[in-house]
Amino acid sequence: ANPYLSAAIGAAIIALASGIMFYCNASSGGTDIIALIVQKYRKIHIGKALLLTDILIMLCGGLLLGPTILAASCIGLLIKGFGVDFVIAQIVHMQQKQNMK
Questions:
Q1: What DSSP designation does 43 have?
Q2: In this model, does residue 15 exceed pLDDT 80?
Q3: Which of 21, 30, 51, 84 is most solvent-facing, going by the fewest CB within 10 Å?
Q4: Is the alpha carbon torsion for 15, 20, 22, 28 positive or negative?
């Protein structure tokens, strides 16, 4: 199995689910809670807050497990971080279109 493809597909699925949860003001726990706290006090998009909180974990895991895992984790983390903001933006856009009808 290709670790890069697995990371990309897994991160896209997680971004979709996390984006829906964050839009509904929910959380799956873990680093999501830290990201919500960062977002509250720094006024940044939740995806970027999640990206910041997950970088430390990614670096530790990559250092322990090797460069292939670090690179795959980096790919997944970027897709998840930006994907969450994309999903939320799409939901807001769809709701605005629905409200205009």
A1: -
A2: yes
A3: 30
A4: negative
